[in-house]
Design a protein that fits this description.
27% helix, alpha+beta, single chain, binds pyridoxal-5'-phosphate, 6-stranded antiparallel sheet
Length: 273
Amino acid sequence: VSRCRVNGRVADTVVALDRGLNYGDGLFETVRLVGGAPRFWPRHLARLTAGCERLGFACPAATLLEAEVQSVADVTPPDGIVKLVVTRGAGGRGYRPPATAEPTRIVTGHGAPAYDPAWTTGGIALRVCSTHLGRNPRLAGIKHLNRLEQVLARAEWTDDDVAEGLMLDASGLAICGTQSNLFLARDGVLATPRLDQCGVAGVMRGFVLECARSLGLGLEVRDVPLSEVEAAPELFVTNAVVGIWPVSAFAGHRLPVGPIAQRLQAALAAAVP
Ligand SMILES: Cc1ncc(COP(=O)(O)O)c(C=O)c1O
């Protein structure tokens, strides 16, 4: 319980009428700790703030959120994870958002992820999921609490040697992994799917895009058909917790860990949180 705070108090329960629970009416951030400090905190805060704006409720004060995240980080392993959930709060009968609601803040601390460290150096196996992502520009990009597409997609496989599943939209465009963003590299040019119809604009994706610009790499944010992913000489996925995972097996063939993923991993290791 000490690693869990609800509205600033040490507690691990929320009220039954909370709209986050009832409707997924809220947002979340999963933050990696590095040396006990929340890595990329300003980026997480910016996405959360944008999400609150999109859903139409006031984001709790940044200073308050930061203090609560740090207080949970202080009792969490220094290489662990802090998850922050902000919901619209409790109230309203039915979907209509109440005119006044006090947002709920939930902060939990967790140990370091149990992923095989060899995945970062040697790459992961990526499969293709049959669960599609629905298009919804009003929800695209933000990290809202409705993650049933990802839950169904992740339930499609139990083989622990497969780290991630690629999700497509209904027209067969590659969008993202179940819990990560996708990048392709070819001839020094990096491409990643646009996320204006579906998908989550990852914090690590944002870092990689900025890094690629400062390294002078070509950069394309655009439609990426599955056939292009299948033919890509270099693939990697990104996530704020795991960083950059090269893809070493996809759709029945093996890929080498590519030089661009390695350059970006080096830049991430050197990055100031
Ligand atoms: C659906 C989805 N897309 C992308 C990401 C990657 O986002 P971030 O880099 O902020 O971790 C996540 C992270 O959990 C996710 O759940």
